[in-house]
Design a protein that fits this description.
4-stranded mixed β-sheet, 3-stranded antiparallel β-sheet
Length: about 525
């Protein structure tokens, strides 16, 4: 009888906990005078995303375009990420104001992925907070300058030529080949990051089930059901997850990459090996020998999408990097680069297949550039000077932004003046979010947004783009540190693909392409194209 009574009490307490949690913050925005979307029980406004009723881009567009008649809602509105209130900022001037001018009030990103008990993730630049973030940003920033990209470019060219050799061999033996480009580009991204970040050479197109690729794919697959469930629980019950030390990634998976990194570092130290990759740069940072070098060549641009480093990144960084620090930066470099680059490149291949006129113009520029080198490998600086290539890549990042949002967390109280008498008071811990994908599809900033139109980024037109509306790599001092590397990788792979092959649609190609109702930017039925060698042209 006592046991039954205790079970009844426990059930009642749990039910009350769920109900309280399910209706938490119900009047949060109402009390602040901000128009908001009515949140659903427990899931807030995130239900359509996590139940896979909307693609991630469509989800952001739905929330962004709510209340079209309200005069204030084009600036800010309230949404609920599950039951957490988040201010959706939509006005470009307000976005710039918060992300740049008032950055000291909004230094941190939201973190639901890890805590101090999981240093391999928690210590990454992506999740570090305030002064720890500033120190690490300053430490790592010199690793992503133009001069360092020039050194790494040779490694990327080797991978690109490896790709060309593989496809040429396939087409020579079996005829024109059809590939699912998300898988194809994921393997290329894996090989490039393996060589540039970990100093490991693999050929994932040839060796389909190599250990590094399989573990890398697992590490970056946030959309698989078991990991989605973990994320869901972390979002709804963060305190419980922290108490139970729930980790997003398995111990075995992290151990694989830990061994790969530490073994490489020990081998290089013992044998005095220097290789122009991320491990070498991190080893140099650990010794305090990685610093900014200002020169005329450093003040260059990797293209329209490039975001310049702030003064924070040019300060003196920390000198006492631990093995966990180095592991965390390599892992986040892998996670950040593996999926975003493969996503961008796969959508680029779709656009080339469905817009043959764009592909042909790009091929002419690539062919003319290639002739200048008389069979030699193109260099980093020449790649950056290719205007139409940059226009194509910039438009692809507008239409198919790999990560269509970014957020910031308030670190100290701040009152935002939105104009027309509307003010919003941020308290410590409050969050604002920017839906970059929705901005990129807003017709007031990008007319006919569904159209793939590289001319938006021509010399004649790019100055018409409203500042604060094109944000594929974020904004402010906490923008993506790897933007130069990502653009170099995408441009290099596209250069070699278009130079050597026609990218063409076939019966498997979905036109127009539809996004999967998934929590990642992936296509509904894959991106299938055929690669036809240009050797006879």
């Amino acid at each position: 009888m006592l046991v039954e009574f205790l079970l009844l009490i426990a059930a009642a307490l749990f039910a009350k906990f769920i109900i309280d949690k399910g209706y938490k913050n119900e009047n949060y925005f109402k009390e602040r005078g901000v128009k908001y979307l009515q949140p659903n029980f427990l899931v807030g406004n995130s239900g359509n995303l996590f139940t896979r009723k909307r693609s991630i881009l469509k989800w952001t567009l739905d929330l962004y375009s709510a209340f079209p008649q309200d005069k204030f809602v084009h600036r800010i509105s309230g949404i609920f990420d599950f039951r957490s209130p988040v201010l959706l900022v939509k006005d470009p001037e307000l976005i710039k104001h918060l992300a740049i001018k008032e950055f000291d009030h909004f230094v941190n990103r939201r973190n639901i992925f890890a805590d101090e008990s999981d240093p391999a993730i928690y210590k990454s630049l992506f999740l570090l907070k305030e002064d720890d973030w500033r120190d690490m940003r300053a430490t790592l920033s010199p690793a992503f300058t133009g001069s360092k990209m020039r050194l790494m470019f040779e490694l990327i060219s080797e991978c690109s030529n490896q790709m060309v050799a593989f496809v040429n061999k396939e087409t020579k033996g079996k005829g024109i080949q059809t590939y699912e480009m998300k898988d194809f580009c994921s393997r290329m991204s894996n090989d490039i990051i393996a060589t540039c970040a970990f100093g490991i050479q693999v050929n994932s197109l040839k060796e389909q089930k190599n250990e590094f690729y399989l573990n890398g794919k697992d590490l970056t697959n946030l959309a698989k059901m078991s990991r989605l469930v973990k994320l869901l629980v972390m979002l709804i019950f963060p305190v419980i997850c922290k108490a139970l030390k729930v980790k997003l990634f398995s111990r075995q998976l992290i151990s694989f990459f830990r061994r790969a990194i530490l073994d490489a570092m020990q081998y290089r130290e013992k044998n005095n090996i220097i290789r122009p990759d991320m491990i070498h740069l991190l080893m140099e940072a650990k010794k305090g020998r990685l610093t900014h070098q200002t020169s005329d060549k450093e003040i260059d641009s990797a293209g329209f999408a490039t975001v310049e480093e702030s003064q924070i990144g040019k300060q003196e960084g920390k000198k006492d990097l631990s093995d966990d620090d180095i592991l965390a930066q390599c892992l986040i470099f892998f996670i950040g680069g593996f999926d975003t680059v493969s996503t961008s490149l796969s959508f680029l291949c779709y656009e080339m297949a469905s817009n043959p006129d764009v592909q042909e113009r790009l091929y002419e520029e690539i062919l003319n550039t290639n002739k200048q080198f008389d069979g030699k490998v193109i260099n980093y600086d020449t790649l950056q000077k290719m205007k139409y290539l940059d226009m194509v890549v910039s438009e692809n990042l507008r239409k198919w932004t790999p990560i269509p949002f970014f957020d910031r967390v308030c670190t100290k109280e701040y009152v935002l003046d939105c104009g027309d008498g509307l003010k919003y008071s941020f308290k410590k811990g409050d969050i604002f979010i920017v839906f970059t994908g929705a901005l990129h599809y807003d017709p007031q900033y990008f007319p006919n947004p569904e159209k793939f139109d590289p001319e938006r980024f021509s010399d004649e037109n790019k100055d018409q783009i409203v500042p604060g509306t094109y944000l594929p790599f974020g904004l402010g001092p906490r923008n993506c540190i790897g933007v130069r590397f990502a653009l170099m990788e995408v441009k290099s792979l596209l250069y070699y693909l278009i130079l050597n092959f026609k990218i063409e649609p076939n019966e498997k190609t979905q036109i127009p392409l539809k996004l999967s109702k998934n929590s990642a930017m992936v296509s509904e039925k894959g991106i299938w194209v055929q690669l036809t060698p240009r050797c006879k042209e």
